[in-house]
Amino acid sequence: MAERVKKEPDREAGALVIGLGRFGSAIAATLDRLGQDVLAVEHKEERVAQWSGRLPLVQADATNPEALEQLGARDFAVAVVGVGSSLEASVLITANLVDLKTPQIWAKAVTPEHGRILQRIGAHHVVYPESDAGARVAHLVSGKMLDYIQVEDDFVIVKMRPPLEMQGFTLAQSDVRKRYGVTVIGVKSPGLEFQYATAETRVAASDFIVVSGHEDVLERFSARP
Fold first, then answer.
1. C-alpha to C-alpha distance for 83 and 92, rounded to whole angstroms
2. pLDDT digits over 15-68, tens only?
3. 181 secondary structure, DSSP code
């Protein structure tokens, strides 16, 4: 039976986060800090003790569909399955949420095979925190990129220093979109607010630029001197 640890939020449009490992706790804590309605579910006593009083929290075994019913899981608009170390638990929890007709289910996977199973049973979004973080860091350490976000498939957004051919010129003058197939979204100058790019935006050597495009194109562009 689910044990109430802290008063639950209004659930009609809230997020249910199951599992308070590194992944789940980061999501729950961030949502809570942003003022979003969130309820965390964890069955391990040590993690419940760690997060009690810091998050809206219920101690329950989410592999048990009756426990999810008791804590009102069907009333949440979004559920995040942060359990990844146990394939069986991850699949059972996701299946329970599918049975409850949860509108949006985000599930953590540790392998491609794990991810395919989660998708087949009805998870709407499958994320790979470890592999995604590893790929991101690889891009950062291998070139001049200062930040890297994969938006979809091979389309990415990066933060980088401008190559020499852009420094001192407006975007119309350097014309990198036509020459290299990348789009400069904005420019951040030291001490100034971020500004969205226009053709008249002049880029200095000390600036950071935010650029979007296909992954392979941006890899080549970021490698330019």
1. 10
2. 999 999 988 999 999 999 888 899 999 999 999 999 999 999 999 999 999 999
3. S
SS3 54: coil
Name beta bridge partners: 187. Answer: 195, 209
What is the C-alpha R_g of the chain? 22
CATH number of the domain within which 49 lies: 3.40.50.720
What's the burial of 166, exposed, middle or buried (CB within 10 Å: 0-12/13-18/19+)?
buried
Of 112, 127, 142, the domain-final residue: 127
Give CA–CA dist 113/119, Å, rounded: 10
End residue of a domain, out of 78, 107, 127: 127
Do 78 and 177 belong to one domain?
A: no
109: domain range? 3-127
Please count the CA atoms within 13 angstroms of the CA of 43 that sit on its side-chain side.
13
Task: Give the pLDDT of residue 48.
Answer: 94
Strand partners, 38: 15
| Residue 196, CB-side half-sphere exposure with 13 Å CA sphere | 0
Q: How many domains does the chain have?
A: 2
Helix, strand or coil, per DSSP, at residue 210:
strand
Cα(162)–Cα(205) distance, rounded to whole angstroms? 7
Q: For the chain, what's the residue count?
A: 225
CB count in 10 Å sphere of residue 106: 21
Residue 151 and residue 103 share a domain: no
Contact predicate 105/129, CB 8 Å: no
Burial class (CB in 10 A: 0-12, 13-18, 19+), 211: buried
